[in-house]
Amino acid sequence: xxxxxEKRIELQAPVARVWRAxxxxxxxGSWFRVALxxxxxxxxxxxxxxTWPGYEHIAWRAVVRAMEPERLFSFTWHPYAIEPGVDxxxxxxxLVEFRLEARGDGTLLTxxxxxxxxxxxxxxxxxxxxxxxxxxxxxENIRQHLEGAAGRGR
Length: 154
Fold this sequence. Notes:
It contains three helices and seven strands, in the order E-H-H-E-E-E-E-E-E-H.
């Protein structure tokens, strides 16, 4: 099994617009389907709950690692931590990185999630598989958010 998930998507939106969709908690919540309780701040935990139908009982917890404007947004979290009543806090988290690169009038967005080799073996394969599928969906979600009616004029 691979230790890393990588996804790339070319977005028809300028870097500044993609940056806002990634780092404004309301916008991030809109396309990612999570209700966040406050802003993203490096070194601080971001909390909220998933709003995706069927997953509303799941808490969102991520620690923001880096916010390099219009270049890099990263956080750590516990991948596919969805079992009610299970405390995942003792597990090593994975690192999620969004990298932005100007491509003409658009943006190349690269998503990288690494550290699956440290996820407990009992749930590593499923966490990798589910996050690999999930990131494919989320990359399409951000594209629709930026290029659809909701993304114009903001």
